[in-house]
Amino acid sequence: MIAPLVLATVAVTDFATARAWYARLFGRAPDHSPGPSCVEWQIARCTRIQVLPRSDLPDRRNRAGGASVGILVDDLDEVLANLQGRHIDVMPQTATHFVRFAPVSDPDGNLVTFVESASG
């Protein structure tokens, strides 16, 4: 299967707080706002991160704090420096022989992990 767009949805308890946190995380206002309680950031040509209040999601997906999103980046050190400048707390970095990665947690505990290939 080839999909024209990948959309990762993150459930949150406090929409206004989460919207502000993700704006700091990505360094800009949302790229799309399909409704009054839905915002999206386009982070790659065919990939969006969508933030919704948990009450807007079907019962089986409405648990805030249960999402985990991985974002591949070319320069993890640059991303981490930018996040620190925007007052986003970064958890300790981890490295394997193949990747370096650094998770950050939104106010609900959803994880956004930035990953850099060890091969550069």
Automatic annotation (TrEMBL):
It comes from the Bacteria. Residues 4-117 form the VOC domain. SUPFAM superfamilies: Glyoxalase/Bleomycin resistance protein/Dihydroxybiphenyl dioxygenase (SSF54593). Pfam families: Glyoxalase. Transmembrane segments: none annotated. InterPro entries: Glyas_Bleomycin-R_OHBP_Dase (IPR029068), Glyas_Fos-R_dOase_dom (IPR004360), VOC_core (IPR037523). This is VOC family protein. It comes from Rhodanobacter umsongensis.
